[in-house]
Amino acid sequence: MGIDCGQKEDRQLYIDPAKPMYCFKSINAHEDKIACIIQLFSGQIATGSYDHKIKIWNVFNFECQKTIQEKGNVLCLLQYKHNLLLSGTDKNTIQLWDINSPNNNPLCEYKGHSLWVNCLTKCDEDYFASCSNDSDIRIWNINSSNSVNILRI
After folding, report:
1. Which long-range contacts does 61-68 make (Cβ < 8 Å, 24+ apart)?
2. Quick check: 139 and 147 in contact, CB under 8 A?
3. ∠ CA(133), CA(137), CA(143), 5° rounding?
4. In the beta sheet, which residues pair with residue 110?
5. What pTM does this model have?
6. At residue 70, does pLDDT exceed 70?
């Protein structure tokens, strides 16, 4: 069974494990607007916000399991592998995080976009793509901080 999640401008996170059009639970999730939400492989959810934080949530007891401090507004998230999470920000960068690590420092920072990174997608086991308000699509090797291909639109 999937979990339906949503957000509103009131900074509340709405979770209903059974009925998609009914608000089962509302939690005060962040100190500013929530920009993105994804379901993790574990069943938890991750949210990114304009408060510069990524939060990992247990959807059964509605507790925040982890908070990661970012450098800028978190605009998009992508779970890459079981413990690896990518975040795109308004600081034109992408960060790679180990969500199981007690250390909240990024494993890698990917630089190359000249404007906000607003979307991330996995290509295969070694590559992911990002797009930005700079109109570039960049292909990255997860193991290197350099983009391997750029498509300018």
Report:
1. 62/15, 62/25, 62/27, 66/99, 67/104, 68/97, 68/99, 68/104
2. yes
3. 120
4. 94
5. 0.83
6. yes
